[in-house]
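Summarise this fold before class:
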Amino acid sequence: MVAELEQISYDDGGGFTADYITDTGGLWHFHPEFELVLNIKSNGTRIIGDSVELFDQDDMVLIASSIPHSWNYYKNDKSLPEKHGIMVHFKQSSLGDGLLSQHEMRCVRELLTLAERGIGFSVEDAKKAEKHLVQMVSNNGINKMIDFFNVLRIMCDSEKRVLLCSENYKQ
């Protein structure tokens, strides 16, 4: 099956989008942005590259650009909770080469490299990140960036992250 190219719009002209997930998913797609997804009140099947797994609430995943993916949400009583997750899109260039090249950003560089295989995080990590992701949806400017950096810190500090795609997976 061929993945469709999805165009991500940046309404505020910034380098990051953060929105609640309100649809049922299912579209096999890719895009040039990184994607961070936190499922708050949903479950279903998640497909990232060659990884197919069931997910439940408090499932958090980071995937690099151009990896085809799809979330298929299971409905309870023919509907999903309204704001059942949060999705963040960002370009690596939004962080800037100058900032990423700093020694202090080594863990972020490593995280972005690992995301080429998709990274799953623990429920504990997801719960720590949730408040910052919720704030990202409504914040803008420097406050949105601070929330984003707090989430990056949580993901960098994670001791229970797992790579999702097989070692031999090629996009």
User: Anything to note?
Assistant: The helical segments are 97-100, 106-114, 123-138, 141-157. The chain has four helices and eleven strands.
